Amino acid sequence: MSRFTSEAHLPGLRQPAPANDGLDAPFWEGTRAHELRVQHCRSCEIHQWGPEWMCHACNSMELDWVTVDPVGQIYSWQRPHHPVHRALSDRGPYIIVLVELPHADNLRMVGNLLGDPLQEIEIGASVSVVFEDHDDGDPDFTLVQWEVTPAS
Question: What is the pTM of this model?
């Protein structure tokens, strides 16, 4: 479980919320339902992330939001030791991962890796989503975090 779980959102950080234009609202609605949603083009059948009004591959405007398998592999990672914001001054180090989603055309999504911030990280390691609910926001929100999937 995240070391941030059950804490109020840190003062000074912008609260995660849908963009004013509503483009990413289906993503945030999905997180609240504990579903990982990305865009999918009806014309060329490609998945994409981040959200856009137009398909990255074929320029079609025929995009839907679909739920994808919330698992992937670590494509890249970084362990920042210095805070990127003053509200995080006592939070380092932490691990940021770039996760490749094999069931969604290998698109890549950035997120935090939960667990020991000094853990060994292996490129290609399997990870799965942990939905972290924050019922203290205005509105309430759910973050997508990642954790290494134990080897079976």
Answer: 0.85
